[in-house]
Amino acid sequence: MFAAMTFAVNDPEAGFCRDCLRPQADAAARRCAACGSPRLLRHAELHRLSIAHIDCDAFYAAVEKRDRPELRDRPLIIGGGKRGVVSTACYIARIKGVRSAMPMFKALEACPEAVVIKPDMEKYVLVGREVRRMMQALTPLVEPISIDEAFLDLSGTQKLHGMAPAIVLARFARQVEREVGITVSVGLSYCKFLAKVASDFNKPRGFAVIGEAEALDFLAEQPVTLIWGVGKAFAATLARDGITQIAQLQTMERGTLMKRYGTMGDRLYHLARGQDTRRVHAEHGAKSVSAETTFDIDLAAPGDLVPVLRALSETVSARLKKAGIAGHTVTLKLKTHDFKIRTRNRRLSDPTRLADRIFSTGLGLLEKETDGTRYRLIGIGVADLAPDDRADPSDLVDTAARKRALAEGAVDVLREKFGKKAVETGYTFGKGNRGRPQREG
Prior knowledge:
By secondary structure, the protein is of the alpha+beta class. The protein has 15 helices and 14 strands.
């Protein structure tokens, strides 16, 4: 659907809608021509920039409000007791003056009606990992900064996704909101420093762009505290030297700054000019390969869930084969209608990369979970990765397994030549996109 929108020829100054992702024809329009949303994104360099910083909005508080809808419109503080400090606060509480690291007694003085909840780090880590996996589906170059933020480099991914990085990121933000139940803010630029700066604009649900052509003028208007590493103490040192604005740093020589402030002076010189050559470095290689999907409506019937499981198994298999790897452990993931996550796994006697084997293993796990529970998401993956040279050996007991493996290889050849829909299994045939049941109307 999205790849057919011809984003590459869209006028970047007309932009696109962040809600429906439709390109816009009128650069002066205030609302989307398709859905009426005012959330339009426009920028002269919109389709050229590829370095992003993604930051979850009031992360701990957002997770708690997701799980406790009765708190949605109330000020919420995550932190310790009266002698503790604020870990984070929702935006309602922030409007009242509550800030992270503020002593709890001061926070409650500023917002006495706030609800206080102790942090549940185990839960937050699980949600953070879920968002991280979704980032890694966009690009392998994901550099985590903390549990709820990361840099991404989407250079060279336009052919893969069929759209510019800006639109991929807007789709990702919408996906996180829909599937995880929290919101994120996105900063897009040509370097890490300005991507991080941009992500702080317009929170929550923000999406800001800082292009190369505007960087100098933009930075000139900012205080020196915007520069990474300039905290209160160093800002005071700069102020004593009469430097409070980045515009002043832009007029100073590199040697002068280094003589005064050492290596920090070198950083001031380059960042004041929007020069940041740091690359986005992935934390580590992939530990698993997976695919998942969220339903438009909650599903409980095996007849609805099994075709999706089959389609996802084929997606995982294709990724494994392309990467030349296989996995020992098959993991089924389910998310219930109330956002509770169930994971079930089974370790195989030898690694696999076959869709048939991934699916049959996942099916065995799924059968135990189809007890009438309604699910909003299903996923399948393999872990404990290894090279595929020892994957799926011939089974002397199950002779049919060898035939199925050969048949799958023949199907792969046909799909490579004629497209994914050239051959379908009985599980997915006629079931619509990714095995989902087609709905009338």
